[in-house]
Each structure stands twice: as structure tokens, then as C-alpha cells.
Design brief:
alpha+beta; Chloramphenicol Acetyltransferase; six-stranded mixed sheet; five-stranded mixed sheet; 9 helices; 13 strands; 30% helix
């Protein structure tokens, strides 16, 4: 996955970042945070690397140990520009570990802590593990003391992996555009309560409710905007670590593959129960299915005789050819985070979001995790697809539909 992501990446065009954002009640000491970050990376040498100089005839990209740069941990004055940078400016792969940890004043007081990673280096599960270890080091607790905890759905941010190039089921629908002339990406964050005491067993998983809500939201959005109908396909990353990213000894890096959820949305007056049942059946099958080798593109990336100077443009060309069959949106759920994310004198995180990278033609990712009994939802979008007002409207409607599904367990 790392090699595949690198072949796709055009650093002057792509903002291929994983963005993780925690809100803490107190004020972070930046020097203490830098020391905690340094100790954390020392324990994960596969992350403390940079891309070595490569030539077109090399058979693959190479990585070398790298010192942590002086700008890797920094305090900023404004959350808005800091978040924008996390979405649009990936840390350079060749300048040092492609990781950045920044603080900014949080709305209402306290500190917003933003971890930005180049997706070639790390997925969302790795970023979560990294932030948990930083919290332990900052608080003075033994790192990994809660490493037995795991993200419940074992899903995470993923690159546009070969599994997304399937043609089964016809061409997926595209999202009705409401574009902005400005480049780049944006994100809209929300928090939903997860009080499911009224739900009767067997309860659908939060992951299935999330997929159903996104399916319904996009079908409604396209209908309202008079967009041509078509099957809505959702890419769902599945973590390949046997016990999740927070398990002792879990590998760091990119360890996931994509499954495609193709359940058709019902008629507007038919309710969501049938759709939820179809999606639940597909996700169970996807998680139980053996992981395959990735097909043609994975074979191309791993072939020993083709140099990177040929692999990279061929991989990007294949992705362009497959663009009409790319899924409608990506939906990624890290599940329930049981690590307390306690930063000692600063306090434990009271909010936590992550967002997966987006590229056109898909242009939309919906990312979620559960912390403290509340679902934290991030809707990230390309401005080429949705301008800020349109994206805010879509994100608000997705949260409303998801909240309704959670409250009644999808029985309607």
C-alpha cells in the first residue's frame, strides 16, 4: 500500500494527508509536546524516516532514517489556517519524517492538537496509535499502557486502492457538483450522541448505520439536484491488522484494503430498514472475505523488473482509465477509541476527529470514530466537487440522517 500510494502521488498536485484533530481542555506546553513526540517516534523507527534520493531506474522507492526537523512540532495562533494546512499541505516526504504536530487555540478555550501525516507513510490507525503514545509520554505514563485497546470497527483511512477499480454493478453514480473555483479541500466536523439504549437486539453496528446514512444522504442530494440516477458505491477501508491498530506490536504504516458496498438506496418513502439490512450483510461478508493480492495494479507496483520511472506514470494512467468506475464516496470508521488520550496536566481529549484524503473524481470522504460515547464525524471534500456552503449543507444533512438512524436503530 505504501508503494502504491507513492506511485499515485504527485506532490505538486495532491494533498494526500491523514488529518487527526484532538481538542484538549488545557494549554499544551510545546517544548514538552516536542519531547513527547521525539520519544514516541524513537519507539517507532519505521515512522522516523524520509524518502531517500531516487532515480528513475530504481526498482522501488527507498526510505532512510531521518532526524525530526525543528518545524515538526509548533504552536500556531489560529485554528482555521492550521486545519487548512493539515488538509492541503502534506509534510514533504524527502525533508524528514513526513509528520507534523501543531497546536492552536480551540473554540471555547483549551487547545486543538492537529497531527498531519503523509498518507504514503501512515494510515489513520497508525496516526491514532501515534497520538495515543504521544499522550502517554506527555503525561509521564508508560507508553502503550492502554495498548490492548482497539478501534472497534477496524477501519481506517485508505488510499485509492486497486479494489476501488472494479466494474461489477455498473458505473457508480457521481455526486451532483456544486463546485468552487478555488482549489484545495475542506472539512466539516460534527459530534453526535450515541445513546442507543432504546435499540432492540440485534443492534446494527455503528459502522453499518454510518454507511446507510451516507448512502441515503447522497441519494437524496442527487435527487434534489436533478442529477442522473445511478448505483451509489461506497469504498470502506478494512484494517488488516489482526487485533487493530492499538494492539501490542501492531505494525505501523498502511495496513488496510478497500471493500466496495453497493446496496441500492430504497425509494424515499420506503424507509431505511431494508437498505440497512443489505449493507449489514455486505459489510459482514467483506470483513470475513480473504484479502486478495490487489489485482493488476498491485502486480504492476510490485513487479521486480519495472523501474519507478515507468511504474509511477503507468499507475496514474491506469487510475485515470478506471476513474469512471471509482466509487461514489469513501466511508471510513475507526470505531470506538478506548484509550483515554490523557495528556496529564492538560487533561484528556474531549473531542477527536480524523479525515481521510480525497481526490477527484470521488472528491468526498466521510470519516468517523467514537470517543466518550459520542460519534465524531468529519466530511472532507474537494472544492472541485463542492464549495464550502454546499459541503456544509451535505455534512449537516448526513449528520441529521445518521442521528435519526442511531435513535431508532434503523427500524424505519
Amino acid at each position: 500500500m505504501d508503494e502504491y500510494s507513492r506511485h499515485l502521488l504527485q506532490e505538486h498536485l495532491d494533498a494526500d494527508t491523514v488529518h487527526l484533530e484532538a481538542h484538549l481542555p488545557g494549554t499544551v506546553d510545546v517544548e514538552r509536546l516536542r519531547a513527547a513526540f521525539t520519544r514516541t517516534l524513537a519507539a517507532h523507527p519505521t515512522l522516523q524516516v524520509r524518502q531517500a534520493d531516487s532515480r528513475w531506474w530504481h526498482r522501488r522507492y527507498h526510505w532512510e532514517p531521518a532526524p525530526i526537523g525543528p518545524g515538526a512540532v509548533a504552536a500556531t495562533a489560529d485554528l482555521g489556517p492550521t486545519r487548512h494546512r493539515a488538509l492541503t499541505e502534506p509534510p514533504p516526504l524527502a525533508a524528514g519524517p513526513p509528520l507534523r504536530l501543531e497546536t492552536a487555540p480551540a473554540p471555547g478555550g483549551g487547545t486543538a492538537l492537529l497531527l498531519t501525516a503523509a498518507h504514503t507513510l501512515a494510515d489513520a490507525g497508525t496516526c491514532l496509535r501515534l497520538l495515543c503514545d504521544v499522550a502517554d509520554h506527555y503525561s509521564g505514563a508508560p507508553a502503550g499502557r492502554h495498548s490492548g485497546a482497539r478501534a472497534g470497527q477496524r477501519s481506517g483511512g485508505a488510499a485509492d486502492a486497486p479494489a476501488a477499480f472494479t466494474t461489477r454493478g455498473g458505473r457508480p453514480a457521481r455526486i451532483a457538483p456544486a463546485a468552487s473555483p478555488s482549489p484545495g479541500t475542506g472539512v466539516h466536523l460534527s459530534v453526535l450522541p450515541l445513546d442507543r439504549t432504546g435499540a432492540k437486539p440485534p443492534q446494527p453496528t455503528v459502522n453499518d448505520l454510518l454507511l446507510t446514512a451516507v448512502q441515503l444522504t447522497l441519494a437524496e442530494w442527487n435527487h434534489r439536484h436533478g442529477h442522473p440516477t445511478g448505483p451509489i458505491h461506497l469504498s470502506m477501508p478494512i484494517d488488516d491488522r489482526p487485533d487493530g491498530p492499538l494492539a501490542p506490536g501492531a505494525p505501523m504504516g498502511n495496513h488496510n484494503h478497500l471493500a466496495i458496498i453497493r446496496a441500492e438506496a430504497p425509494a424515499p418513502d420506503a424507509g431505511a430498514a431494508m437498505l440497512l439490512g443489505r449493507i449489514s450483510a455486505q459489510t459482514r461478508a467483506a470483513k470475513a472475505a480473504p484479502v486478495t493480492g490487489g489485482g493488476l495494479v498491485a502486480g504492476l507496483v510490485s513487479t521486480p523488473w519495472l523501474p519507478v520511472g515507468a511504474k509511477a506514470p503507468l499507475t496514474r494512467a491506469l487510475r485515470r482509465i478506471a476513474a469512471p468506475w471509482t466509487s461514489t464516496a469513501l466511508v471510513s470508521n475507526l470505531g470506538r477509541v478506548t484509550h483515554p488520550l490523557d495528556f496529564g496536566p492538560v487533561g484528556p481529549a474531549d473531542a477527536l476527529w480524523f479525515s481521510a484524503p480525497v481526490r477527484m473524481p470521488r472528491g468526498l470522504s466521510v470519516s468517523a470514530l467514537t470517543l466518550g460515547g459520542r460519534l465524531h464525524l468529519a466530511v472532507r471534500h474537494c472544492h472541485q466537487l463542492l464549495a464550502e456552503p454546499a459541503a456544509a449543507e451535505l455534512a449537516r444533512r448526513c449528520a441529521e440522517i445518521l442521528d435519526a438512524l442511531v435513535k431508532d436503530g434503523g427500524r424505519r
